[in-house]
Model the fold of this input.
Amino acid sequence: MKQWWRRWTYEIPLAIGDALWDVLVVQLAALLDRLTVRKVIAFIPVVILIGAYYHSVPIPPELLLIGDFLAYIDIFSVLILLGVLSRVTTILFVVSQAMARVAALAGHVVTHLQRLDVRHRRQRGAPTRPRRRPAPSEDDRAYGSLWGQAASA
Done:
């Protein structure tokens, strides 16, 4: 009789208390650790539907629309992301075209500046290239070598 009494007054309540501790504290804490905002948002339509069937008071259509929106939030987020990505690719295309035009303009300016030879100006006092002497005229040739020597000197 003492065994039976000890079992039902001591061991079984302790086992029930341990099970309750495990379920209500340990497993609940583990569930809350894994809980994300996305899971909470996905569960809201379930709560709205349970509330709609549980109560005899009708739920306004706005709440049902919000529930539907939250149920389909993944689809809406994918559509929004596709819209944003298409705009990003368009912007990148326009920027790349503008950069190509700027590069072409810069190349045109560089070639034009090279034609003007802006970088290689002559310094003052720099010796010039020796120039070719003009050929002696017919008048100089007619008088012989004397004038030819004087012209070359």
About this structure: Residues 18-71 form one domain. The chain is about 80% helix and 0% strand. Helices lie at 2-34, 37-54, 61-71, 73-116, 138-142, 145-152. The CA atoms of residues 89 and 95 lie 10 Å apart.
